[in-house]
Task: inverse folding
């Protein structure tokens, strides 16, 4: 399992995941930058993602949907806030409506991804910041903590391919 720790901080309204991968930083960066690789791990294994738009540049936007076992679709969006590849990037994300555009459902979160080379491995830290304690608790109730952990658990196989 690539995820080595998770931490929910209700005081600072954050949810942090730390994972380590047996690959160099440039290879781990590719799994964020390339939408075909991103969709092989973004989303829990039973809810694979399809990115229909992915602009990995400051101000760029992404649109995607995840397809559940019954064919249900959950749509989401990103807006890239800052980018310093291959070391870090920051994006805002949230739920989208059937048209793929932000729906406003549960507001948005801000996620900072940091990659650090450590010998032959890369440490990836993702910190999601929430607008309120209610939003954080609702997202955790919906399975975000478990879902992100399962999603990141798919990265090892992708990197080994």
Result:
């Amino acid at each position: 399992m690539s995820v080595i720790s998770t931490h929910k901080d209700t005081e600072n309204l954050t949810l942090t995941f730390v994972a380590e991968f047996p690959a160099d930083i440039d290879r781990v960066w590719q799994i964020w930058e390339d939408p075909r690789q991103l969709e092989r791990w973004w989303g829990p294994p039973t809810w694979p993602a399809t990115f229909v738009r992915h602009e990995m540049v400051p101000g760029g936007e992404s649109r995607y949907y995840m397809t559940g076992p019954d064919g249900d679709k959950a749509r989401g969006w990103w807006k890239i806030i800052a980018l310093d590849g291959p070391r870090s990037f920051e994006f805002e994300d949230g739920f989208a409506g059937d048209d793929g555009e932000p729906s406003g459902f549960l507001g948005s979160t801000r996620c900072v991804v940091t990659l650090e080379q450590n010998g032959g491995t890369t440490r990836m830290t993702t910190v999601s910041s929430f607008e309120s304690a209610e939003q954080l608790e609702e997202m955790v109730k919906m399975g975000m903590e478990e879902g992100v952990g399962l999603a990141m658990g798919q990265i090892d196989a992708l990197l080994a391919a």
In short: The first helix runs from residue 25 to 33. The two ends are 16 Å apart (CA to CA). The chain has a mean pLDDT of 95. The CA atoms of residues 120 and 126 lie 20 Å apart.
